[in-house]
Design a protein that fits this description.
The chain has 267 residues and is an alpha/beta fold. Helices cover 42% and strands 15% of the residues.
Length: 267
């Protein structure tokens, strides 16, 4: 166990059952944190959730998993209350926002039904951006975020680049980074850091839902100077290092974890 974390300390992972959230949950459990995992899965994917839980427990850590809509106010507050009952003398060392549930539609289309509507836009922003604020508010109010806590939010190049059908998610990523900056300002006096993680193109279930993702992967592979695509484990290990207590002065950043992909046009 990593003795730099307390015996009862937890990480709260929003989106813990796949992709970056899954990898980070397992990695942080390896480094000594218990895991409170929030996910939304149907019956067909629950066996994989059990595999993730088994990996965490194999590392000697507790796994409290909640199959809920992370953007549901009542369920969020109920989850925070249950975590507070379970955490004892510990606190939340890491909050990772890795929710990837949004609408992939153009902003404009010939047929009205083919373009994003207000309900879809609002849902995308609420789940993929605004929920970071609400989880932070409730965890802070419950006394579970304290000096030494680390907040991370998964962003993407979509925050600065446009892509077909990605408009609603792009808006959410831009909002997420804005929220990260504001939370940095407001939480710095509490000794809590806030950083966004911008991963390189990574083959995850959420990426596979994006139309044309195959071409995105090919282009990223071609320009990445490290000669391969980013993996969820690359990102999880980076977050594991950044969660260390000695990173207390690192806050308010968008950190690229991509093997140099962002800064290379073509090789």
């Amino acid at each position: 166990m990593n003795q730099r974390f307390g015996e009862h300390d937890f990480a709260v992972i929003l989106g813990a059952s796949s992709g970056f959230g899954e990898a980070t949950a397992i990695e942080l459990s390896r480094r000594g944190l218990h895991i409170c995992g929030v996910h939304l899965d149907r019956r067909g994917t629950m066996p994989h959730v059990q595999e993730v839980i088994a990996e965490i427990e194999k590392n000697g850590r507790r796994a409290l998993f909640f199959n809920i809509n992370a953007a549901d106010e009542e369920k969020r507050r109920d989850t925070v209350a249950k975590l507070k009952d379970e955490i004892g003398n510990g606190f939340v060392r890491v909050l990772l926002h890795s929710l990837a549930f949004g609408t992939l539609k153009p902003l404009l289309a010939e047929k009205q039904e083919d373009q994003v509507n207000p309900a879809q836009m609002n849902m995308t922003l609420d789940v993929m951006a605004h929920s970071l604020i609400y989880w932070t508010q409730d965890l802070l109010r419950a006394g579970l975020l304290r000096s030494g806590s680390r907040i991370f939010a998964m962003t993407s190049l979509g925050s600065v680049l446009a892509a077909a059908n990605y408009g609603p998610v792009s808006a959410a990523k831009s909002a997420l980074e804005s929220h990260m900056r504001q939370l940095t300002l407001e939480l710095a006096p509490n000794g809590i850091t806030v950083n966004a993680i911008r991963a390189g193109v990574t083959e995850t279930p959420s990426l596979q839902k994006i139309p044309g993702h195959e071409k995105m992967m090919e282009a990223a592979f071609a320009r990445n100077p490290s000669g391969r695509l980013t993996t969820p484990l690359d990102v999880a290990r980076a977050i594991g290092v950044l969660a260390d207590p000695d990173t207390y002065w690192l806050t308010g950043n968008v950190i690229n974890v991509d093997g140099g992909e962002m800064f290379v046009g073509t090789k």
